[in-house]
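Lab notebook, bench 4. We co-purified these components, and the gel suggests they stay together. Before we commit to crystallization screens, I want a quick structural picture of the whole thing.
Request: model the full complex, all chains together.
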Amino acid sequence: MKHVKTLNTRDYKKSMKTGGCGECQTSCQSACKTSCTVGNQSCENKNR
Amino acid sequence: MVHQYKSHGFNIVLDVESGAVHIVDDVVYDLIPHMEDKEALSISEASALTGNKYSDTDLEEAINEINELRDSGALYSKDIYESYVDNFTKTKAKDPVVKAMCLHIAHDCNLRCRYCFAEEGEYHGRKALMTYEVGKQALDYLMDHSGNRVNLEVDFFGGEPTMNFDVVKKLVEYGRSQEEKRNKKFRFTLTTNGVLLDDEILDFANKEMGNLVLSIDGRKEVNDRMRPTANGKGSYDIILPKFKKAAGSRNQTNYYVRGTYTHYNTDFANDVIHLNDLGFEQISVEPVVCDPKEDYALKESDLPVLLEQYDILADEVIKRRKNGKYINFFHFMIDLTGGPCIAKRLSGCGSGGEYLSVTPWGDIYPCHQFVGEEKFLMGNVFDGIVNKDIPMEFAGCNVYTKPECRECFAKFYCSGGCAANSYHATGSLNGNYTFGCELQRKRIECAIMIKAALAGNEDFADKKESESIAAD
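Here is the predicted assembly.
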């Protein structure tokens, strides 16, 4: 496209089929720990 | 929902429900708000809607490209996840699995940090050290209730866990001894203020801890104001050499120096930069969350300054990385391609369910932030969960049960935020700590902008952002 550059992202809709395995890390967001957004975590589902 | 914003010369468009991120030029940026319900926009209409400042050719191309994005499911996507996440969380609540545990190894501390939510480690209670027997039972509880999850996280937390380090070592040894026979893999994290961090502890941590969290607030005067020792002196000079050694010994990865900023250092970008100038590459500096009556509490009037600080910091991160100096600021980390599935994004932090905190005497709370609040006492590691209403209440929370989250572009990145912050700010797990939300949204905008700015521009193949999450 000439006017749009799209960054590579994970398609949430597709992840409905393969997601939810729960092997990823938890995502505490309190300020007393190295809190994070969920968005910075890596998926650990090898079959995604 | 579409969220669009301008940052550092980029026009950024987030298609919230698909997760797509587009960097667009001005004509597309200006047209996007007008085309959600209108595919067949004429050139004359488009021109009028955008102030008659673009050529017909540009408008035609832009309209076509916007419709192309729409057709490919990367723009104007609808929210289709509410019933999915509802089913997902209900199923999880019926068959709860625990996969992460925060072990309060020591309710005692050798620093007197003014903002400590744990009240110098005592959590509204008494000084106490966890015994090996309690810790072992906690690990057994975790393994027994982890279903078929392989990866288990355990954070040695406090107070200051190095004040009870023999127990930490024995628990790690016990955990490792169980891994093969139970098909589990422990990821241990140690969170420390560094005062007792000697070679013996560091060697052990480097061998066994997947992540090491080193608490320091930044510049000496900033750190020492809020993080004094028991005799009132600053801790900076005590901990800094130890932290430098620790970071170096871990090859600048799988650790974080982490600090807290307060009303006294609203120019916190300087603290992050200071830490990077000292040689630290993995840095997290976060807003204090406390009683608004405290003198160091962040105030509404601080907000514009804080938001600007994230912009300043984002600029500096880009500049340094383009110039070959690595810096990873934790809150600017975002994994666009390999990030979590939608179920994870929607179902929250897991507190009170897959994540639990255990006190030195074995009591279980939904997370460390609720420890000492009797209303949230769930049970203990010997008898299990006694108050079964609490996990149900936490499991019932997600971005769709929080009215303010439903309409927020950041919902799939923050997952509804911190349950404890929500509760302490509003009295409800489904409330919103709005001050924190403002900062969160800004951090996400900066994080995505940095991705755009550095796309194809970096050569840090040997550098890895520490993906381990402290303590969760």
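Residues 378 and 387 of chain B are 5 Å apart (CA to CA). Worth comparing against the SEC data before the next meeting. The first strand of chain B starts at residue 2 and ends at 7.
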